[in-house]
Design a protein that fits this description.
The chain is mainly beta. It is built from no helices and 6 strands.
């Protein structure tokens, strides 16, 4: 579920989806897709929205 705000229309926007079992990536985690610059601004890298790395699974 994703929630955002559209400044053009001054409305909250929502999006949701569902996945099948074979579309899930087990043992993976999403990587951060933002960076804080020295001046305090935050940069969001939309190219990294699906970037992931290995993550340990529970025993």
């Amino acid at each position: 579920f994703i929630k955002g705000y559209d400044e053009t229309f001054a409305q909250t926007v929502h999006a949701s989806t569902s996945y099948l079992w074979d579309e899930l990536k087990w043992g993976r985690r999403f990587l951060p897709m933002y960076e804080t610059l020295p001046n305090g601004h935050i940069v969001l890298d939309l190219e990294a929205i699906d970037a992931c790395a290995e993550a340990p699974l529970p025993e």
